[in-house]
Amino acid sequence: IDIASDHHTEQSKSVNNYQPVSSHSMPKPIPYDESHQQPSSIPHVSPAKPITTENASINKNSQEAAVIGPRIFKKGIKGSASLNPNDNINQVAICYSCGIRIRGPFISAMDRCYCVEHFTCSRCSTNLMECGFVEENGKLCCEFDFEQYLAPFCAKCGHKILKECIHALEKTWHPECFVCTACQREIGNGSFHVKEGHPYCINGNID
User: Fold this and answer.
1) Which residues contact 199 (CB under 8 A, 6 or more apart)?
2) Checking DSSP bridges between strand 166-168 and strand 171-173, what pairing results, if any?
């Protein structure tokens, strides 16, 4: 027989020189002990902890601002309202306040019609024909009461807002005061990011 390697040659010799051994001299099997198991060469790796990142979020109010836009108080100066005799039979005037057709004279103001008795301040009942006035959400108010009691305060400068008013972050702002914390540009009525309660424009750096 042609043997291919030294290893096989030694094995062959061992087989040929085999001598039978008495069963009484056979070594007893040694029970397997797991405590003597060789340590694994593969290093133990602890499971990676989840990495949390604080992402800027789009505030709900920002989406509303983008859709609704800044709220505008419609202001009328003294003398801007006029009394219409309503003597045109083809003219149909509907009171903006009560929604009922006006049969007699009516007040024209801000491209709307009002019953004479309804064109008054909702707070003090002053006739608004005699003074300046403000209309918001369908309610009329004399200019004095609006500035004294109803005008909201700006969250940044603390002054009363008498013209345009932006609602965001559950607060009211002057348009010129609602700016990006990073670049100081006016955000206006567009969408914005919020981090730690501060507004950032879409391109603002929130790091």
Assistant:
1) 59, 62, 168, 169, 178, 179, 180, 181, 187, 192, 193
2) antiparallel
Best CATH choice for the domain 74-150 from the list 3.40.720.10, 1.10.3720.10, 2.30.30.230, 2.10.110.10: 2.10.110.10
- What pLDDT, in 10s, does the model give residues 98-153? 999 998 899 998 888 999 999 999 899 998 988 888 887 778 889 889 888 888 89
Residue 62 confidence class, pLDDT cut points 50, 70, 90: very low
Q: What residues have CB less than 8 Å from 68, skipping those under 6 apart?
A: 189
Per-residue model confidence (pLDDT) at position 11: 46
DSSP for 184-197, written as a single string: --B-TTS-EEEETT
Q: Which residues does 133 contact at the CB level (< 8 Å), separation at least 6?
A: 75, 76, 81, 109, 121, 140, 141, 142, 143
Domain spanning 57-71+164-201: CATH superfamily: Cysteine Rich Protein (2.10.110.10)
Instruction: Retrieve residue 167's tokens.
Output: 């609602």
